[in-house]
Amino acid sequence: MNRSPDEVQAEARARAAGGDLAGALEIMDTGLAAHPASAPLANSAGNLAMKLGDPGRAADYFGAAAKLEPQSLEFAVNHAIALGAAERHEEALSALLEVEDQGCTNPRYCSVRGNAARGARQLDEAAIWYERSVTLAPGGAKATHGRARVALERGEPDAVERFERALSLNQADAEAWLGYAEALDAGGRAEQARDLAEKLVAQAPQWLAALRLLAQLRLAAGEHDFTSHFATAQQQRPDDPAIARAHVQTLELHDRFAEAMALAEQASARFPGDGVFPLLQASYAGIVGDDALATRLFAELSLDTPERCLLEARYILHAGEYERAAVLLDRVIESDPWHINAWAVRDILWRQTNDPRGEWLHGQEGLVRMIPLPDGDAVLHDAVPVLHRLHDQSAFPLGQSLRGGTQTRGSLFDRVEPELRRLHEALLSALEDYRSALPPHDPTHPLLRHRDGEMCVTGSWSVRLSGGGDFHAAHLHPDGIVSSALYCDLPDSFGKTENREGFIELGRPPPKMRLDLEPRYTLRPRQGHLALFPSTLYHGTRPFAEGTRMTVAFDVQCREQE
Fold first, then answer.
1. Which residue intervals of 69-221 are DSSP H helices?
2. Which top CATH class is 366-559?
């Protein structure tokens, strides 16, 4: 005899109360097979899946419940929460739009709508919905915190006060404390930010975001040993390999390869079951030129992952092991066909072996262009003073390609300044010019497969370098398909010397690859113009003697056509 939905719910609740959440969900699945039209059962199954840490599965259950009862605000909101937890923010917005008429006066709906909009980087919309939620329920801590986050990300002047309001509602919200420290730093109150970050790290030494924030603050203060607190945290949490991994990789990002190698060796001994540390030690040994150690460590590795294949392929290129490197890169790209780093190393391999596919990848006309910014004189006339003001409040960033200079915080085009929004609109117009002149669509090419889609800006930032040694180390932007540099302010001497000071180089491998390979392209910066090129090209800049070089850079993604 089939149990009723209520009986299924009762049995599942009893199983869950005993700590067996997976067993409770199995009971729910059996009940749903018998009662597929029961929206409450599907909703309860979604709640269990969320507790099990499986938001994708939860979204399926909640979606089924919402489809069965489309008038239910609760089911639609639960569906959106699960979609957001699964990083499917656009879908979450679509789910919420279906019940907007009844949800717009519900504070929980409005708060979740703000979360979905923020996740989709629609920060103006997020601010509106968080504000609406707070107006409907002034004590809503989650919405108040969300609105504070948006204020920080948009560069609003009252971000600190908004975090203080959020913390007054929920002193136990650790993420709000972290945001408060970030807002203090962005507001020029670095000492207070540092004091708070130190307290957060002391209370939660395993919290990687707090460890990185403290490293950023110490780096900005000019401390050479800006990562020593990672070691202190490791002493407090000796069984947590994530702390050691973050410590090692932070040093790597600042070219401290010998120190990173020593730490990786220590971590290998401390965590013998973790194959990542021997891999990192092998990679750093290769970078510092200890080939005997690197070769031995790579040969002894038990780890068989795409990361291992990529790092080993990158290392053995300097020794001319081209066939083996090709096999390793093929394995990476088989697992992730559009892996930016693997394609960039493949480009270096193809150029060293005179493989004609190198021309297909990066040599086709139109892939690399210098484009004038539409209405550039007027747009930059307004934007440049704003950018300089932001740089005056910025510091040398943690883990970026700069070697000297400053980089703006956060995503530049999320900010509220109208001058930056006009700049964003002009850049979108230039992007369309670039896209429309690309070679024909090619489904096998990492960029040209997007040839007919709509290009959009994702991450965005500004960099200001000074003459006398500042430059960009060769690097990649793995989060985009097109990379960029808009030249906003340049020294008068640019382009007037024979040594190409301050020029951008595309396709020169980074020093850690130990390859003497000239860049594929060398471009002279021109004020009011932007360089656009595939993200699969390594790129860096030459140092320059004097003056200021300020750029805006951004990552480009693609919205595919239906």
1. 73-85, 89-97, 100-103, 107-119, 123-136, 141-153, 159-169, 174-186, 190-203, 208-220
2. mainly beta
- What are 79-101's pLDDT values in tens digits? 999 999 999 999 999 999 999 99
Q: Give yes or no for residue 384 having a pLDDT over 90.
A: yes
Report CA torsion sign: 285, 250, 312, 317. negative
One-letter amino acid identity for 258?
A
Mapping DSSP onto H, E and C, the string for 199-266 reads HHHHHCCCCHHHHHHHHHHHHHCCCCCCCHHHHHHHHHCCCCHHHHHHHHHHHHHCCCHHHHHHHHHH
As beta bridge partners, residue 475 has 539
What's the whole-number mean pLDDT along residues 220-242?
A: 95
Task: Give the model confidence (pLDDT) of 142-155 as tens digits.
Answer: 999 999 999 999 99
Q: Which of 249-263, 280-294, 458-472, 531-545 has the lowest mean pLDDT?
A: 458-472
Question: Considering the entire predicted model, what is its pTM?
Answer: 0.91
Expressed in angstroms, the distance from the first to the final Cα of the chain is 48
Q: What is the DSSP string of 26-50?
A: HHHHHHHHH-TT-HHHHHHHHHHHH
Question: pLDDT tens, 456-483?
Answer: 998 899 999 887 777 678 889 888 999 9
C-alpha 360/C-alpha 434 separation (Å) is 18
Q: How many CB atoms lie under 10 A from the CB of residue 400?
A: 16
Backbone angles phi, psi at 528, to 5 degrees: 80, 5
DSSP 3-state of 407: strand
| Amino acid identity, position 236 | Q
Tokens of 433: 């010019």
Amino acid at 380: L
**DSSP 8-state secondary structure symbol assigned to residue 469:** T
> Which residue bears the tokens 């919402």?
66
Q: The tokens 């070697």 sit on which residue?
A: 403
- In 3D space, the residue among 534, 412, 538 whose CA is nearest the CA of residue 464 turns out to be 412
Q: What pLDDT is recorded for position 562?
A: 36
Residue 462 CA to residue 460 CA, distance in Å, equals: 7
| Cβ neighbours of residue 357 closer than 8 Å, sequence gap 6 or more | 350
